[in-house]
Automatic annotation (TrEMBL):
GO terms for cellular component: cytosol. Keywords: Isomerase, RNA-binding. It comes from [Clostridium] fimetarium. The keyword Thylakoid does not apply. PROSITE patterns: PSI_RSU (PS01149), S4 (PS50889). InterPro entries: PsdUridine_s_RsuA/RluB/E/F_cat, PsdUridine_synth_cat_dom_sf, PsdUridine_synth_RsuA/RluA, PsdUridine_synth_RsuA/RluB/E/F, PsdUridine_synth_RsuA/RluB_CS, RsuA_PseudoU_synthase, S4_RNA-bd, S4_RNA-bd_sf. One of its GO terms (biological process) is enzyme-directed rRNA pseudouridine synthesis. Its EC number is 5.4.99.-. This is Pseudouridine synthase. Belongs to the pseudouridine synthase RsuA family. Residues 4-64 form the RNA-binding S4 domain.
Amino acid sequence: MANIRLDKYLADMQLGTRSQVKEYIRKGRILVNNNNVMSPNAKVDTKIDIILFDGRNISYEDFEYYMLNKPAGVLSATRDKHSDTVLDIIQGFTRKDLFPVGRLDKDTEGLLLITNDGMLAHNLLSPKKHVDKTYFAKINGKVLPKHILEFANGIYIEEDIKTLPATLKILTSGIESEIELTIHEGKFHQVKKMFEKIDTEVTYLKRLSMGTLVLDDNLQPGEYRKLTDSEIEDLKSIKVE
Ligand code: URA
């Protein structure tokens, strides 16, 4: 984004509602490149112009990116009347238009990207792009080497829905097993359904990575941090079939 109205610039950066920021502008509290600008519809360049509000520099952030370790019990949605959502967890953000990139089930934990960058989200979620997602899971039941092959060949999770080849790593195998599974799509309840099909049950599910983005070990469930510049660059440059 380059040229936008001054009142939009200030409202986007959460200085107030459109009418509040218009009032600030008319009262001369805003400087653009050290000049008083009293007109709310003056155009400013978000990349070049220096905007001061009562002497405080207000730089423009087009996009924000957060990595959340989603805790169990919250919905992957923006707002909900009845349940807490992942956006209720994020505090101190600037942009009002944040959303979670994709969905984890309410009882699933782990990596969730939260941003307002619609283009990046579209690329990561597009069914054509097959972005890898890796999960850790605890399984009620015995996961066996033969299942590695079954998942690698693709498995019917519904009568007419076959999964793409997935990579299963068995960490422990017994009455309860622990596994890592990498899938290349995001069908509804996909991991749970895949294990149902081999007569087992997922009892704990956590997403570890999505594309190049890996869950930060330092984040406890419910904690989040901004993505680093290199994490953002890497996500933007994911080349997928
Ligand atoms: N697969 C599932 O079954 N649930 C999730 O939350 C994510 C992947």
